[in-house]
Write a structure and sequence with these properties.
Order of helices and strands: HHHHHHHHHHHHHHH
Distance between the termini: 23 Å
Strand content: under 5%
Structural class: mainly alpha
Number of domains: 2
Number of strands: 0
Shape: globular
Radius of gyration: 22 Å
Largest sheet: none
C-alpha cells in the first residue's frame, strides 16, 4: 500500500474478498454478543433492587442511547476516513486522522456530559420522571456522565483499530469489558464482601470501570501496536480539516442513530393500543431478533474498513465483489432464519413468556417479520457501505426512509386494516420495500 505496512499485517486490498470478510466478521460476532449480554446483565441485577430502581434505569435509556448514538456516529466516521487513508497509503494522514478523531470525540463527550449534568432535573422531568424516581435517576446518571468519556472513546478507538483490518482485538476488548461488568455489577450494586452497597450508583460505576478497561486497551493498541497516535499539539488548520472530514460522516450518522430509537418508540406506542401484553410481546420478540441480526451487524461493521481500504486504493472491483457476496449471503441468511423460525416460533414464544396470549403474539410476530429478514439485512448493510465510501447522506436517507417513510406509515395502515397482526404485516412490507430501495440506490449511486 504505497509503502505503508500495517503493524497488524491486515491489508484488506489483497487476498480473497470472502476470506477477508469472514476473518473480520467472526470476532465481531462475539463482540456484539457480549454487548447484548452487557445490557441484559445490567437489567437483571437492577431489577433485583426493586420496581422503582428498574423504572429509574428505564428513564436513563433515552439519554444513554442519545450519547451512544453520537459515539456510534463518530466511530463509523473514524473507521471510514482512516480506512480510506490506509488504502491510499498515506501514513501521515492515517496517524493524523486517528489522533484527531480521538480528540474530537473527547471534546464532544465533555460538552455533552457537562450539558447533561447541568440539565438533569429538567431533562428527566420532561421524560416523565416523578419526584419519587428522580433521586434514583441522579444516582445513576451523575456517575455515568462523569465516566462517559470511557463509554465514548473506546467506540471510536475500536473503530480506528478495525480500520486497520483488525477486528480480533476490538472483539476481544468488548468481551473483556463485558466480563468485568458481569463481575462488578453484583459487587457494587448489592455490596457483597468488602464492597459498599451502592445500588444504582454501583451499576453506573460498574459500567464506567468496565468501559475504562476498554478505553485503556484500545488506546494501548493504537499507540504501541499500530503506532497511530501522535503525542504532539496539532496544527489548527490540520485539526479543522480532520474535523470537517470526520463530522461530514459523523453528524448525519449520529442523527440517524438518534432517530431510529424514536421511530421504534412510535411503533411501540402504536402497539400499546392493543394492551400491555402486546407491548410485552413486542419487546420479547425484538430481543429474539437481536440475536438474529448480530451476525448482520458484525458483517456491516467488518465491511466499513474493508470497503474503505479498497476505496482508498482505487480497487472498485473488490468493492463490487464484496457487495455481491454480502447481498447473496443476506438473502441466504434470511431464508435460513425464516425456516428456523417456522420450526421454532411456538417454542420461542413459550420460552419468553408463560402468558398464553403474549406467547401467541410473539409467535405471530416472528413468523410474519422473518419473511423479510433477508431484505432487511441488505438494507442494514447498504447503510454502512455508503458511510464507508464517504456518502453519509445516502446512508441517512436509507435509514430515515426505512423507519419514518415506510415502517411507521405501513404499520399505521396495517393497524387500521388488520389490527395487531396488520401492524406486523405492515412492518414486513416496509422491510421488503426498504431492501429493494437499498439494492436500487446502491447499484446506481454507490460507486459513482
Amino acid at each position: 500500500m504505497k509503502g505503508y505496512v500495517l503493524k497488524s499485517n491486515n491489508d484488506l486490498t489483497q487476498g480473497s474478498v470472502s476470506s477477508n470478510l469472514f476473518r473480520m466478521t467472526v470476532p465481531m460476532i462475539f463482540g456484539m454478543l457480549s454487548m447484548v449480554l452487557f445490557n441484559l446483565v445490567d437489567t437483571f441485577f437492577v431489577a433485583r433492587l426493586g420496581t422503582v430502581e428498574l423504572a429509574a434505569m428505564g428513564f436513563t435509556l433515552p439519554v444513554v442511547m442519545f450519547i451512544t448514538g453520537i459515539a456510534l456516529g463518530l466511530g463509523v466516521a473514524t473507521a471510514s476516513v482512516v480506512s480510506r487513508a490506509i488504502g491510499a497509503g498515506d501514513i501521515n494522514q492515517v496517524r493524523r486522522l486517528t489522533t484527531h478523531s480521538l480528540m474530537i470525540s473527547l471534546f464532544s463527550v465533555i460538552v455533552f456530559s457537562t450539558l447533561g449534568l447541568l440539565t438533569l432535573d429538567p431533562v428527566f422531568k420532561a421524560l416523565g420522571a416523578t419526584p419519587e424516581i428522580l433521586p434514583f435517576i441522579k444516582r445513576y446518571m451523575v456517575t455515568w456522565y462523569i465516566g462517559a468519556v470511557f463509554v465514548v472513546i473506546p467506540m471510536v478507538g475500536n473503530n480506528a483499530i478495525r480500520a486497520c483490518g483488525d477486528t480480533f482485538y476490538p472483539g476481544l476488548i468488548m468481551v473483556i469489558s463485558t466480563l468485568i461488568n458481569i463481575v462488578l455489577d453484583p459487587l457494587l450494586i448489592f455490596g457483597w464482601g468488602w464492597f459498599p452497597r451502592l445500588t444504582l450508583q454501583g451499576a453506573a460505576l460498574a459500567t464506567v470501570i468496565s468501559r475504562a478497561s476498554a478505553f485503556t486497551f484500545s488506546i494501548l493498541i493504537l499507540y504501541f501496536r499500530e503506532k497511530l497516535i501522535i503525542i504532539t499539539l496539532p496544527k489548527l488548520s490540520q485539526l479543522i480539516d480532520s474535523a470537517k472530514r470526520i463530522l461530514y460522516i459523523a453528524v448525519p450518522s449520529s442523527f440517524a442513530n438518534i432517530l431510529l430509537p424514536l421511530g421504534m418508540a412510535v411503533i411501540t406506542r402504536l402497539v400499546s393500543g392493543y394492551g400491555p401484553r402486546a407491548v410485552a410481546a413486542l419487546g420479547a420478540a425484538m430481543r429474539i431478533e437481536m440475536f438474529v441480526f448480530i451476525l448482520i451487524m458484525a458483517l456491516s461493521t467488518a465491511l466499513v474498513p474493508f470497503i474503505g481500504q479498497n476505496w482508498g486504493a482505487g480497487k472498485l472491483d473488490r468493492i463490487k465483489t464484496s457487495l455481491s457476496l454480502t447481498n447473496k449471503f443476506s438473502l441466504l441468511w434470511g431464508v435460513c432464519n425464516f425456516v428456523l423460525i417456522l420450526v421454532l416460533a411456538e417454542f420461542l414464544g413459550n420460552t419468553f413468556s408463560k402468558d398464553i396470549l403474549v406467547s401467541v403474539i410473539i409467535t405471530h410476530y416472528l413468523l410474519i417479520r422473518s419473511l423479510g429478514y433477508g431484505l432487511r439485512s441488505i438494507a442494514m448493510i447498504t447503510s454502512s457501505v455508503f458511510n464507508a465510501v464517504n456518502k453519509p447522506f445516502y446512508s441517512s436517507f436509507l435509514n430515515i426512509t426505512r423507519v419514518f417513510i415506510l415502517s411507521i406509515p405501513f404499520a399505521y395502515l396495517g393497524s387500521i386494516l388488520g389490527g395487531l397482526i396488520g401492524i406486523f404485516a405492515g412492518l414486513l412490507v416496509a422491510d421488503i420495500v426498504a431492501g429493494i430501495i437499498s439494492i436500487v440506490v446502491s447499484s446506481k449511486r454507490l460507486l459513482i
